[in-house]
Design brief:
Blueprint (H helix, E strand, L loop, with lengths): L4 E5 L3 E6 L2 E6 L5 H15 L8 E7 L2 E7 L4 E2 H7 L4 H16 L9 H11 L4 H13 L5 E3 L8 E3 L5 E3 L6 E3 L1 H14 L3 H15 L3 H15 L5 H11 L6
Antiparallel strand pairs: 1-2, 2-3, 3-5, 4-5, 6-8, 7-10, 8-9
Length: 249
């Protein structure tokens, strides 16, 4: 096994390439349950027929839990957008189509999005009044069971040399309301400093899915709040600004 070729380094994991295999090696203190849940999510999503890297095994390397999956050779959609700014609208169009395709799937074994968001809101340092309001708003939202990615952004899409797209990183996957997933993607564009991309993405998604923009916007304070329990201080400050748009009646 060759662990010399590092593909990516994150706060709590390192991703390596070993031939046609991709090894996601988690830090020693990373939760075993979270590793196994991510692998299970990915295995379940495989069964939907979506184009994703297949899980090959879950193992331990030097005392560290590791998920081994297929290595998909290609470039991320984020990199393609960077290299070909004139084609950004074309890439955004593909991005939205992929998300719509994903939302057309169901997967009963996944965690329910509402359950996860309620738990995350409870874990925030927001006041009891704001938490209550957000829980109430969340419960009032329509219940769906669509496959939601939870971190759907152009860095998690790989395009192979023959143009085949693959969706990566299913650690945050849930089943629930697609508009919550869209609100999360919109906020990710903002967090990345791409305000123009965020607006174009939302317009494009709402038009193609026949979804009212106001409906997605209703999810934004809820989604922002659920994301404040992680991330750096700058991200939390930005997310808090979205929570503050909550109207008190």
């Amino acid at each position: 096994m060759n662990l010399d070729r590092i593909i990516a380094v994150r706060t709590d994991k390192t991703v390596y390439r070993d031939g046609d295999r991709c090894l996601k090696v988690f830090n020693e203190d990373f939760s075993k349950a979270d590793v196994l849940n991510e692998a299970l999510n990915q295995a379940r999503i495989e069964e939907t027929g979506l184009n994703i890297p297949k899980i090959l095994e879950v193992t331990v390397i030097d005392g560290k839990w590791t998920i081994v999956s297929e290595f998909i050779k290609g470039k991320t959609l984020a990199r393609l957008m960077e290299e070909n700014p004139d084609k950004k609208d074309e890439y955004l169009s593909l991005f939205v189509d992929l998300q719509l395709q994903m939302h057309s799937k169901t997967c009963k074994g996944l965690t329910k999005l509402k359950d996860k968001m309620n738990r995350k809101i409870s874990e925030t340092d927001l006041s009891a009044t704001v938490r209550y309001d957000l829980h109430t708003r969340l419960e009032a939202m329509p219940k769906h069971n669509k496959v939601c990615h939870g971190d759907f952004n152009p860095t998690n899409i790989i395009i192979t040399d023959d143009g085949t797209p693959y969706i990566l990183d299913w650690s945050h996957a849930t089943q629930g309301n697609a508009s919550a997933d869209v609100a999360r993607t919109y906020l990710l564009f903002w967090l990345n400093g791409d305000i123009d991309g965020a607006k174009k993405y939302l317009d494009m998604f709402c038009e193609r899915s026949n979804t009212a923009k106001q409906y997605v916007q209703k999810w934004m304070p809820i989604v922002a709040a659920s994301q404040t329990v992680k991330g750096n201080e700058a991200e939390r400050e930005f997310l808090h600004s979205w929570i503050d748009v909550v109207d008190y009646e």
